[in-house]
Amino acid sequence: MALSGDGSGSGEQMSGPRDLNGRPVSRTRWQRMTARLGRAGEEGLATDDPELVTIVGSLDDAVSSATLLSESAWEPEQQVVLRHLLMLPTTRVAEAVAVAGLDGYAAMDVSDTDRDWAATAPMFSGPAPAQSELVVLGRVQLIDAMHLSQERSRMASLGSRHGGVALGWQVWQRASSS
Q1: Three-class SS of residue 169?
Q2: Which residue of 32, 80, 117, 139 has the fewest CB atoms within a 10 Å radius of its CB?
Q3: Backbone phi, then psi, for 112, in 5-degree steps?
Q4: How far apart are CA 127 and CA 176, in angstroms?
């Protein structure tokens, strides 16, 4: 279920640039007109864009967002897909996804790579707890260290309120052409 992120609950996935809080950025009249002519400036990023690569991520709550971003290939002026991996009780997944949808997050497909990465989370020394499910939530936005930290905290709280835990996060961005 992909929500618009505008609070309308329309169920439509919004495309186009997002701000630091993940909200759609209003386009100017000129941008709307040129988009109709097929000369849109920056293409909107989608959470399932095949050109996306993992720029940085962590399963460690103690590592600062600023440190990780500064040591990565992250391009601050470019939109990213911010992904969070959560382990939630199966009975609470739908409710957690709906709550996250209010902030523009959508459930993403969970890959084998996600499962393998989540299995290395420090809080799990073995298989996932019974009756739990790995959930990946993502949204398009601009990020900086402060807003990344804010979103990490938001997801930790979401996981906790729904009887689960936020395992980690990733920043996906289009590969740099340089």
Answers
A1: strand
A2: 32
A3: -60, -35
A4: 36
DSSP string for 119-134: TT-TT-SSSPPTTEEE
10-residue averages of pLDDT along the chain (178 residues): 40 57 70 56 77 94 94 93 96 97 95 90 67 95 95 96 94 82
Q: Report whether 22 contacts 139 (CB < 8 A).
A: yes
State the amino acid at position 131 in one-letter form. Q
pTM of the model: 0.76
| Strand 165-174 to 132-141 pairing | unpaired
Give tens-digit pLDDT for 126-146.
556 679 999 999 999 999 999
Phi, then psi, of 138 in degrees rounded to 5: -145, 160
